[in-house]
Each structure stands twice: as structure tokens, then as C-alpha cells.
Amino acid sequence: MIKVEHLNKYFNRRRQNEYHVINDITIDFGDKGLVTIFGESGCGKTTLLNVIGLMDKFDSGTITIGDDTFKKYQPAKFDEIRNKRIGYIFQNYNLVATKSVYDNVALPLIIVGIKDKEEIDKKVMYALKVVGLDKFKKRNVTMLSGGQQQRVAIARAIAKNPDLIIADEPTGNLDSANTFEIMNIIKEISKERLVILVSHERSIAEHYSDRVIELKDGIVVKDYNNVSSSYSFSDQRNIYLKDYELNTQVSDNSSLNIYDDKKNDTKVDLDIVIRNGEIYIKPKSGSKVHLVDELSETKFIDSSEKEFAESVKKNQNFSLDELGELSSNSKVKKTGYINFFKAIKNAFSGKNRFLKRLKFTFVAFILTTVIFTFNLASIVSKVKVDKKQFLNTSVNTVYVSLSNQESKNQEYIDELVARAKSIEGFKEIRSVETTNAYLGIRINSFYQANRPINVSGYLVDNDKYSTKIINGRDISGDNEMVISKWVAEAILKDSFAKPYGIVSFDDILGLDTAALTGEPGSAPVIIVGICDEESPVTKVSHNIYAALYDGTVTIPDYGYSRGEVTGVFIETTNKELMVQELKKNYQRVYDTVKDGKKTYFKETIEKSMRTLIALGVMTLALALYILLFSRSSMFKKIKDIGILRTVGAKRSDVINIFAGEMFSLTTVTSLIAYIASTAVILFLKFRLNLGVIGVSIFEITPLSFIIGLFLIYGLNIFAGVLPVMTLMGKTPIDIIKKYDI
Asked: What is the spatial distance between Cα 669 and Cα 58, in angstroms, rounded to a whole number?
């Protein structure tokens, strides 16, 4: 069944301290029997066992297990074979300390994928019965003696009925009595299965082995079939009654048997009370009393020690075939035993608590999430591109920028005007100074407070600009105006609006502005309507518009300027065509919406670099903390991780456990903090309306909220599983070595 050919393994390969620990070994182990690899410490026997058991890498040669032949280490395939076909017994037992006897034995069955609880129970209880611990199934393994823990390890190894049992110094930590019991069980297993055992005790090798392979310096020096010799031991745990002198005292309702080893003059001086069928014993002489019941490790055996040892060897009988074949079980999963979603469920229920949850950790996760949320909201407020943040013309405006030289060239400007007028969709053109792109509208009703409401409006000629009225009416006289809903909303958001009863669009109608023409004695212009324009457009009558754009002009009949012309605004009903045609002759032609958005976004990103860097640094700091936290927790649980890997758990199983725990930890800390911080930001924005007083440094959008949520979970989970992902790149035996066992 198992064969290795020309197997080689080195420590410190190609270095000055290179050691050839497995040196060109070829062994055919057969299908069953107890094969002992024997040798002095450091000869390579344990390394060979680990390679054969598919827990370690090798440098060259082949390993054949059944129909599978391997020329190199293949983690996924090795995990699969270890999972279903190999059982392990370790010198230090390698039991999960937090689990009961039953759960430890059931672990490889769950890992192999058996879902049927009745099937698991049947296999676990049979395995425990084989090793004589079925009555201890609910007891925590840390409450057992060394011999009992090793028997639990044997039960775990055989529960899935493997083809191969690997035993690494299984009696190394046991006394002679426990050694005798453990080796008898292992010997019985070897009658049906192949057991490869490592030992440095010659007496064990010669008494129990069917075959002995001796190693020295990584080389097989002897390989022979063994004829069993005698093995002597003294059992200091059990009491063999026939080895003691019996003194029986009988009364009407009592029978007292006193067994004495005659090694001293101890006198029996006890008070015995019988009440309600229960027996109470109190020593009077100060002698120590041991109570022996069915759960005690010590047993009264009605035999001599020698007779019992012979009977155990003759009568111990069980068959692993009673456990059934895993390969024929239709309920065995082929994938890992725990997926990400099951890991999350287990993490919330506390079944797999690999991450140590300290109060400081909760506080750190919450604080960093709050900082992250406000930084993210700050960035969103800067990069969120809203037309209100950059558009100061109508949506139908094309802007042509003029250089200093071009602005002084009247012939150049005349050609530009003529070219614009010739393009289909042209409505009007006017010059503009950078500081005069829009006019302020002041509400006279508030002069009494000495604080008018100042808003921005882009003036257009009512005769040339049609809009849909949503409140009030359209212009019918010279001293009337229609403002866009943008302008109306700006009025309502002003801090002076609400105190004076301006709370709706209807309240704005009838308010007036200062005379736009600036002429002495001119009448104010009254707001008579609000249009649906998504821009700062403010429509005025043709006469008002003409009066504003009359006087000293740089572009005759087309606009006004009180200074040097820096560019022109062109109103059109076909912006795309206007931009396309003008770019054939002029370099700096812009769509005020499309290009304005790009320019604003670029400038905002440049201004936000400090915030972005701060968020990046904070995010990296959080990731580093989570990384260190997860790494610390991982090393505290390295033994359990090693146990899972050695009994067959896949690398993805262990990663899923950590990912599930990090998901649950993030949910009870970061998610709550994220939602709470978002609620605070929204409160500041909408309830306190800080935007109207210039405080709009935080912004939350549905998209930014979702992105932030993914970033928090993604960052936490990735940083949390990165250490264990790195660890999973190591072999199972390397993981165990990290725990130094």
C-alpha cells in the first residue's frame, strides 16, 4: 500500500550546515502490520515518518500511497489523502484542550465531511469503547491522565477507519503500565491496518513489532521481520486483588473485604455510616482514603498482575471494519469541512474562538472606524461633483478662453464672434471678466436687518431663453425677473431666510432686488416666477438685459466689460456642435458643464491630497494593528491550528475560520461604529443644516457608504487572515514545530 523509493530530504539545503536527514531510502511497507522505525535521537526516524505521513516536504524520490504516486510535495492532494486515509498518534497527544473527549474524537469525522450526527456518534462511541473511555465521553481532555489522553488520541486516529496509522513515540510520555495498555491497543490495530511507529525504545520495538527498520544518520542500516520477545512492566495504577492477602469480615447486613499488601502495619480504623442507601466513610487514624468508582482511573482487578497481562494480550479483540468505509459514505463532502458562511455562524456562536477579543481591541476597532468614516466623508465632500459647486452659467453655455494677446486683438475677436454666429444653434454671445461671470441678487425685504441675502445668478435675456415655470409666472413687464430653482434654493438656505418667514418657493415670489441697472431712481426688479432650470440662470426682460450690456463695450453690440476681456460666453441650443466646430480654429473651447466638471474634479483632488494621504496612513495603521492582533491571536492558537492540519483540515478551512471570526468581530465593532458615525454626519448635514453657513466638509452618499462598508470589511478580513494565509504556506509539521511540540 505504501512505498517510498530513493527518498531524500535535506535540512539547510545547499548551505554550509547542510544535513542529509533522509538519505536515498527505499522501503515497501506493505498493507498491514506493525512496522517500527527504530534508532537513536537525530537519526531521521521522525522526519521520515512525517514525510511518509504527508505532513512534510521531501527533496527527491517518490512516495506511493495506493494508486497515487508523488514526486514532490502537493499540499492540496496531501491534505485530501491525510483527511481520509491516515490517522495520527503523537507523543504529546495533540488534543484540543477546550474540547471534550467526544468532540476530540469526532473532529476528524467532521473535517472529513460527515454530516449525519448519528453516524458520527456511532463511530465515536465505538472508537472510545475500543480504548476503554466510552464512559468519559463528556469529560474535558485536560481532566484526564496522560495514558487516558493518549487513548483519546488513538480513538481519534481510528474513528475514520484509516488505511494507515502513524504513531510518533506514542508511549514517550507514559509510564510502563500505560505503555503496556497503549501498545496492546496499537498492536491489535495492526492486525487489520498498517501501523508505522517511531520509537527509540528497543524493548518496545522487539516485543510488539512485526518488522523493525533501523536508521542511522538518515540511512536504513537494518530492515528485518521481528520475532516478539517478552515485555515486562509493573502496573502501579490498578490494584490486582489476587496479589494481596484477603481478610473478610461478615455481619448480618454487611460484608467487608480487606486486602493487605503486608508492606507495613497500617491498621484499618474507619467510621462507616449507611444512610438512605449511601455509604459515608471517615478515617480515624489519619490514613489517606481513595474512593474508587466506575469513573476512577484506578480499577480493582480480580486477578494477579501477571495473569491479567496475559489475558489482556489474549482477549483484547476489536475490528475497525465495524467503523465502515468513508469512501462508501454518500454523506461525505469532497470540499472543506467549513466554508466562510459556516465560519461566520460559528464565530458568532463562539464555537471557533481563535481570535482573543480584548476590551482594548474593541475600543481600537471602534475608534479607527470612526476616524476612517469622517475622513472618508471629508474626501467625498471634496470629490463629489455637483453642478452647483462649479457651474456659474447656464447649462447651454460654451466658454472660449482668450489669452492676453488675443483679448487685445479686435480682429481676432470679431472673427470668433462671426464664427460662433455661423454655427447652427447659436443664440447670443457676450464677453465676461473672470470676476463678472454672474451678478449678485439682493433681497430688499431684509435691509432692515442690515443683512441682505446675497445669491448668485447668471443673467439671460428672457426673449432668447425659454424655461418651464414651476412657481409663479413668466415675465410680463420690464421690472420683473424669473429665477431658477437653484437660486431659489440658495435663498431658502440662507440663515436669514427662515427668521423672516421665507421657508418655501411661494414665499420668495414678490421679493425684489436692488435696481440691476444701477441707474439713480430706477425701479427695483421683482421676482415673479421660479423656473425648473438646473443652473444659476436668472431671466430678466430684454430691456433690462440690454441696459446691463450697454455702455463701454469691448465686443461691440455683444456684451459688456469694465476691464480686459478674458473670454466669451456663447449661448447655444447645440453645445456639442458648437464645441466641435470652434475647436477646429480655437484651442481653448470648453463645455461649461462637461469640461467644468473635469476641471473642478481635478482641482478638488489636488486640494484633497492631504486628506487622502491622512486616510491612507490611518488605513495602513489600522491594517497593521489588525495584522499584529491577528498574528498574536494566531500564535496563541497555533497548537489548535496544527492539530486541525494534522488531522486533515485543509488550508482553506483554517483560513475560513479566521475570516469568519474577523467578520463577526468587525460586525460587533466596526459596523456599529460606522453606522453611528454616518448617522452623526447626516445629522450635522440635514438637521443642523451646516451647509448654509459654509460648513459642508463632510458628505455621505449611498455609493460612498457602500464603498466604505466594503473597505472596512475587506480591510479587516484581509489583514486578519493574512498571517494565517502565510502560515498555511507551511507544512503541517512546520506548524507543529512552531508550537515546539
From this structure: 45
The yes-or-no verdict on residue 440 having pLDDT over 60 is no
pLDDT digits (tens, 9 = 90+) for 606-640: 776 776 777 778 778 777 888 888 888 788 788 88
447/440 Cα distance (integer angstroms): 15
Shortest CA distance to 669 belongs to which of 258, 451, 366, 431? 366
Using DSSP's 3-state secondary structure scheme, residue 648 falls into: coil
| Contact assessment for residue 511 and residue 443, using Cβ atoms and an 8 Å cutoff | yes
Beta-bridge partner residues of 484: 531
Pairing, β 454-461 against β 537-540: parallel
Give me 389's grid cell. Answer: 459647486
Q: Which long-range contacts (CB under 8 A, 24 or more apart) does 549-555 make?
A: 549/430, 553/431, 554/407, 554/413, 554/431, 555/413, 555/417, 555/429, 555/430, 555/431
Rounded to 5°, the CA angle 302-304-310 comes to 105
Confidence of residue 334 (pLDDT cuts 50, 70, 90): low
β-partners of residue 247 are 258
The crossing angle, in degrees rounded to 10, of helices 651-666 and 359-383 is: 80
- In 3D space, the residue among 396, 355, 339 whose CA is nearest the CA of residue 539 turns out to be 396
Block residue for cell numbers 451678478: 439
Please name the amino acid found at residue 214: E
3-class secondary structure, 301: strand
Fold adopted by 2-225: Rossmann fold (3.40.50)
- Indicate if the alpha-carbon torsion angle 397, 402, 407, 410 is positive or negative: negative
Q: List the one residue out of 412, 395, 403, 436 whose CA is nearest residue 555.
A: 412
Domain ranges across the chain: 2-225, 239-298, 340-385+607-738, 391-590
Strands 480-484 vs 525-531: parallel, antiparallel or unpaired: parallel
Q: How far apart are CA 381 and CA 700, in angstroms?
A: 8
Burial of 640 (0-12, 13-18, 19+ CB in 10 A): buried
Residue 59 CA to residue 54 CA, distance in Å, equals 13
What is the distance, to the nearest Å, from the Cα of residue 523 to the centroid of all Cα atoms in its chain?
70
DSSP string for residues in 482-517 = EEEHHHHHHHHHSTTTGGGT--SHHHHTT-EES-TT
Q: Which three cell numbers stand for residue 587?
A: 484651442
- In three-state form (DSSP H/G/I as H, E/B as E, the rest C), the secondary structure along 586-638 is CCCEEECCHHHHHHHHHHHHHHCHHHHHHHHHHHHHHHHHHHHHHHHHHHHCH
Name the burial class of residue 96, with classes exposed (0-12), middle (13-18) and buried (19+) by CB atoms within 10 angstroms of its CB. Answer: middle
Average confidence (pLDDT) over 648-659: 87
Cell triple for 320 = 475497525
Q: Which residue's C-alpha cell is 448635514?
A: 685
CA distance 555 to 543: 19
First to last CA, the chain: 29
Cell numbers found for residue 376: 472618508
Total-model pTM:
0.66
Determine contact, residues 527/481, Cβ cutoff 8 Å. Answer: yes
Residues 519-569 have pLDDT tens digits of 555 677 889 999 998 888 889 888 888 777 643 223 333 333 444 567 888
Mean pLDDT taken over the chain: 81
Q: Are strands 426-432 and 512-513 parallel, antiparallel or unpaired?
A: unpaired
DSSP 663-692: HHHHIIIIIHHHHHHHHHHHIIIIIS-GGG
**Residue burial 314-338, b: 16+ Cβ < 10 Å; e: rest:** eeeebebeebeebeebeebeeebbb
